[in-house]
């Protein structure tokens, strides 16, 4: 039984742009105390894909300054440049092209185009425009978006390799606020659906995975915890547990009790 379980888990990979990953937890690299804490938390999370805000993090564009790639080397991690801080399609496209240049032709990017500084909600019109341009330019686009099922499908149809709906506003820690929208997105998707933004604690990550999402991306929930490294470990376990529960299939919800042990044939 144990061997069968290990085999089932080993073959259950997250596939993004044709590449399989054993970890379904993607992590950010901002907000940590220093690069060493970033390294330790990333390792504890078991993450294989790590996001990097090109506008805020040095990955070689600032010679002489600490370089994130020294602690998270590209031969061990898939570096996912993101367009955090961009508010127009043009800025986002320009940032992705810079990332490709810095990472020697790397095409996998995370697109996010924000609508305003207060809510950090995505500007979906600008996001669609940027996605179309980037896909035509040969990028493999993982796209941050709202939890609108119609928009999610449209982004998939444009050619995005993964759609990443928010669970709640970025950094809010509110958890999943509209699980029915997420279910609708998951059930109609042919590309990975990865919850991005709003996760606050391990139970939020587990719920996302139990809904059938293919992965979870987080930063603040880990970096902002009292013990980021321990929280990273907790998130790793939560994502794994949620995925296993989804694959196992939960029991139906019932209004009344159902005895755990059969009552037929009880003596006396």
TrEMBL record:
Binding-site positions, 1-deoxy-D-xylulose 5-phosphate: 171, 197-198, 219-220
Pathway the protein contributes to: Cofactor biosynthesis; thiamine diphosphate biosynthesis
Class of enzymatic activity (EC top level): transferase
Chief localization: cytoplasm
E.C. designation(s): 2.8.1.10
Compartment(s): Cytoplasm
Keyword annotations from UniProtKB, A to Z: Cytoplasm, Schiff base, Thiamine biosynthesis, Transferase
Annotated active site: 110 (schiff-base intermediate with dxp)
Thiazole synthase ThiG domain residues: 16-262
Reaction(s) catalysed by this chain's protein: [ThiS sulfur-carrier protein]-C-terminal-Gly-aminoethanethioate + 2-iminoacetate + 1-deoxy-D-xylulose 5-phosphate = [ThiS sulfur-carrier protein]-C-terminal Gly-Gly + 2-[(2R,5Z)-2-carboxy-4-methylthiazol-5(2H)-ylidene]ethyl phosphate + 2 H2O + H(+)
Family to which this protein belongs: Belongs to the ThiG family.
Subunit field text: Homotetramer. Forms heterodimers with either ThiH or ThiS.
Function: Catalyzes the rearrangement of 1-deoxy-D-xylulose 5-phosphate (DXP) to produce the thiazole phosphate moiety of thiamine. Sulfur is provided by the thiocarboxylate moiety of the carrier protein ThiS. In vitro, sulfur can be provided by H(2)S.
Protein name according to UniProt: Thiazole synthase
Organism: Lysobacter niastensis
């Amino acid at each position: 039984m144990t061997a069968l379980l290990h085999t089932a888990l080993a073959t259950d990979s997250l596939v993004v742009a044709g590449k399989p990953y054993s970890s379904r937890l993607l992590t950010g690299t901002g907000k940590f105390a220093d690069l060493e804490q970033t390294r330790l938390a990333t390792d504890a999370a078991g993450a294989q894909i790590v996001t990097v805000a090109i506008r805020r993090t040095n990955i070689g564009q600032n010679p002489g300054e600490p370089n994130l790639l020294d602690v998270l080397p590209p031969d061990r991690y898939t570096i996912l440049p993101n367009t955090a801080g961009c508010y127009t399609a043009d800025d986002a496209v320009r940032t992705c092209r810079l990332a490709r240049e810095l990472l020697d032709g790397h095409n996998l990017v995370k697109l996010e185009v924000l609508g305003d500084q207060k809510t950090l909600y995505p500007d979906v019109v600008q996001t669609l425009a940027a996605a179309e341009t980037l896909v035509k330019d040969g990028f493999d686009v993982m796209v941050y978006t709202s939890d609108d099922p119609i928009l999610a499908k449209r982004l998939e149809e444009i050619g995005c390799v993964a759609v990443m709906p928010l669970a709640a506003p970025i950094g809010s820690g509110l958890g999943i606020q509209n699980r029915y929208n997420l279910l609708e997105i998951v059930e109609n998707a042919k590309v990975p659906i990865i919850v991005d933004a709003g996760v606050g604690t391990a139970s939020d990550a587990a719920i996302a995975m139990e809904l059938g999402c293919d992965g979870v991306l987080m930063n603040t929930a880990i970096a902002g915890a009292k013990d980021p490294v321990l929280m990273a470990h907790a998130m790793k376990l939560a994502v794994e547990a949620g995925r296993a529960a989804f694959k196992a299939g939960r029991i139906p919800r019932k209004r009344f009790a159902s005895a755990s042990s059969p009552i037929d044939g009880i003596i006396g």
